[in-house]
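Below is how a single chain appears once it has passed through the pipeline. First comes the sequence as given, then the structure the pipeline wrote out for it. We keep one example in the README because the format questions we get most often are answered faster by looking than by reading.
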Amino acid sequence: MQFRIERTAFAEAVGWAARALPSRTPVPVLGGLLLAAGAGRLNVSGFDFEAAARIGVDAETASAGEVLVPGRRLLDICRVLPDGPVSCALEGTRFTVEAGGTEFGMSTLPREEYPALPSQPSVYGSVDAAAFATAVGQVAVAAGRDETLPVLTGVQLRLDGDSMTLSASDRYRYAVRRVGWKPEGDARASDGAVDALVPARRLLDAARSLARCGDVRVGLDRAAGGGLAGFEGGGMRAVVRLLDGRLPKYGSLFDMAGAAVAEVECGALTEAVRRVAVVAEASSPVRMDFSGDGSVLLRAGFGDDVATQRLPAVLSGAQEVTVAFNPAYLLDALNSFEAPRLRMELLGTGQRALLGAVSGGGAADASHQHLLMSVKQLV
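Resulting structure:
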């Protein structure tokens, strides 16, 4: 096996495939990256049973073949390679990487012990890559991190007609985002909506990596060992094992009948929360007092160690309303919005609050919503 490739392309390919490498594994071969050269193409793959990543790049192939090399070591080598062409060769059980007069030798891993990579699932449709990456990032902040509750660590994808809905919840907050979707193949033949629960961390990583690919083709295989989801674009492919179960329905939670409605500049509120939260203890909330005089007073801290800031805000449906939120959760929600103005539907202390963007025409934008629980403890 022998091939020649540009340093940038090689480093990017190794970096992409290395995303699937496990941080720790009792199976040594899973720490390897599989390099397959042939017909002017180099494929680099990584796999840890929960996710697989594969990318193909152009390369000058002198002799075809496959080799399994320690992934982290190859990644470190790629980071320090000088610019220019890189020559790689397999000689027995030794793999060499040479560029600009610098040569690295690596021992290889047993290729025959490496598990078979999962096949790319059947394509259900495609979505704009940049919009998809943004949407995943906006909902993934609400996913849980407690591995003892695996269902809550996922982002639920719902494919229905020409719409993709992404949602995530850790029981204390619930984020939902809708984006346009182009169904094809099995999705067009489906009679109803299709749901899949994808690990949030894996999905976020794949979506960000594919953000510049134009379109991302999404595939689903719901029959293979709990199911697989595939994401493909720009020569890059990622396959992720689905989680069992589904998130609780959010329809009734998002019904905010009788709520007071406040509108405020999103950027100004975000900066104000970040500012006053400096004096808040880890478990202390940021309190928000909305009043009919056209303002909201933010307050955090206790006793003499307090911070306050007043901002313009428009309140309707009540003379005044007070809510308080975990500052980290509130900042996660605020940072997920891109619109300049924010609409907050408020039921009061210790109850639900629904955040959403205000469209350019002044109407509520239901394509992105974030539900938070107001805490009972007030500053």
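DSSP finds seven helices and 27 strands in the chain.

See the next section for the split statistics.
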